[in-house]
Design a protein that fits this description.
This protein has 446 residues and is an alpha+beta fold. The chain has 2 domains: 128 residues, Fumarylacetoacetase, N-terminal domain (SH3 type barrels, Roll), CATH 2.30.30; 300 residues, Fumarylacetoacetate hydrolase, domain 2. Helices cover 20% and strands 25% of the residues. The protein has 11 helices and 26 strands. Strands 6, 7, 8, 13, 14, 16, 17 and 22 form an 8-stranded mixed beta sheet that branches. A 5-stranded antiparallel beta sheet has the order 4-3-2-1-5. Strands 9-26-25-20-21 form a 5-stranded mixed beta sheet. A hairpin with a 7-residue loop joins strand 25 and strand 26. The longest helix has 15 residues.
Length: 446
Amino acid sequence: MIYEINETHDPNLKSWVESANDPNTDFPIQNLPFCQYRLSASPDRGYEHGVVIGDKVVDLYRLFAIGTFSRELHIELGEDITCSATVDGIADNDKNLIAILRRNLVRVLSEDADALTRDRVSGCLVPIGDVTFEMPFWIGDYTDFYCSIYHATNVGSMFRPDNPLLPNYKYVPIGYHGRASSIVISGTDIKRPHGQNRSDAEAPPKFIPSKSLDYEMELGFFVGQGNELGTSIPISEVEQHIFGVCLVNDWSARDIQAWEYQPLGPFLAKNFATTISPYVVTMEALAPFRTKAFERDADDPQPLDYLNGEQNQKLGGLDINLEVYIQTEKMRAENIEPHMLSRSNTKDLYWTIGQMLTHHASNGCNLQTGDLMATGTVSGPEKSERGCLLELTWRGTEPIDLPSGEQRRFLEDGDEIIMKGFCEREGFRRIGLGECCGKILPAWGS
């Protein structure tokens, strides 16, 4: 079942951690995303798992050690908190237990907490500025989908103007297996990749640095509980298996992609780097921002039975605003703020994340806790909602003007891409997903 709205979503809830009450923070007490971190001043110290509130990180290990939580949590979750090296140990639990953890966190962090609780818990807080974030999960597998019909239609129009969408698109959540080892945390610099380029159809391909480097604005989600090999995950039970979401930038080398995707699809054009944000916003935190699945045209086929659940149709969608900004080397030198390139929304995804996960496991594929899945580029119907430069510049034919006087068709060395995500709904507290950032460095040997 989808998490229901409850007292932890009350917009009037405030915290004794004052920064959490700032209306502009991504991390009010109604959010409480999970993360993995270590103290920047102690690089040799191991990573800890925590929860973010305002401008602080709550050390979950220390919080459990001081005994502030309910006895049930200490019995059921204590070993997962104190022994697991990542958030995997928490995410692998039943969603009801994770909900109890959330309520306990709200209780000890709310302004209603007594003076003794505040004093004890304050010793478990670490300023965000004093930490370095790491992967929240050990990501064993990564799958990227292609679930924005607007993105798929735009891209198809460039290469197949008479037939933009292939016949299977409205029946199958299309995806491919990415490279888990090249997933990096926000803030990691990205080297321009080399690859085969055949921009001149009359000449053999050349092995050179990519000339058409791009970003892709995506939403990622992590598997909570997995499934055994040879079993599936029914759409009616899929919410039990999704722990939370993050931002994803699936960097793409379009010139390499154009040559190598025939006949099998993405490979070296995609697997050189994928950046994720460090904060995992739980599905319970997102409960107020659930929405109906994409409303299909009257002549579109309905999902096949295994992908078609009443609950999924009613609340399987997510209302998350996604923004992309660019700041070039020149903009930084001239103190020009990052320039917004686009704003899209996950409501426009043709397939829900539940349908993606159910389809992934439908053949008996065994998903595991911490596996990352991404939606593919999230684009909307308007030009300002296109989630990558391939679409925004229409394959480089319509360059973008920047406030520095520069133009961009694709990314150049020194460009930084900053992605943001947030949820807003009247009657509820705004929550955010933080930022997902990466700067392009020259290719090796350049």
